[in-house]
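> call design_seq(struct)
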């Protein structure tokens, strides 16, 4: 059996969320996978291991009240960057834009770091006391 490429892994990973099909995650996550979610800020929840990562992502994939939309997936060797939007309600402000930085080894996800635009105001350097 051949090992899935990073492109194949990312395609299947994204489809799991777009199609709300958690079953697509089976056999896609490495035993030693480490995932950092986008929340809670500033560091995100850290999830370790195949079972824990699969359960976390499966709950998200199966949630039909939300919509994950990948805008672009960029693959470079064993690394991938997914630029996405995530809608969690019908209101005009009930969505967030973010990015996942992924690493694949031997056809499975070994690392996933999630980052998103933050809610509320974050002071810019030019607005701080030191400027």
């Amino acid at each position: 059996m051949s090992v899935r490429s990073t492109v194949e892994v990312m395609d299947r990973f994204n489809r799991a969320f777009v199609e709300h099909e958690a079953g697509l995650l089976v056999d896609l996550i490495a035993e030693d996978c480490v995932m950092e979610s986008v929340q809670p800020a500033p560091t995100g929840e850290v999830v370790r291991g195949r079972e824990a990562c699969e359960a976390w992502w499966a709950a998200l994939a199966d949630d039909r009240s939300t919509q994950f939309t990948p805008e672009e997936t960029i693959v470079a060797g064993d690394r991938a960057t997914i630029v996405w939007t995530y809608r969690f309600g019908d209101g005009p402000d009930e969505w967030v834009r973010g990015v996942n930085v992924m690493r694949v080894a031997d056809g499975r996800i070994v690392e996933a770091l999630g980052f998103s635009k933050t809610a509320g105001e974050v002071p810019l350097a030019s607005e701080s006391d030191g400027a």
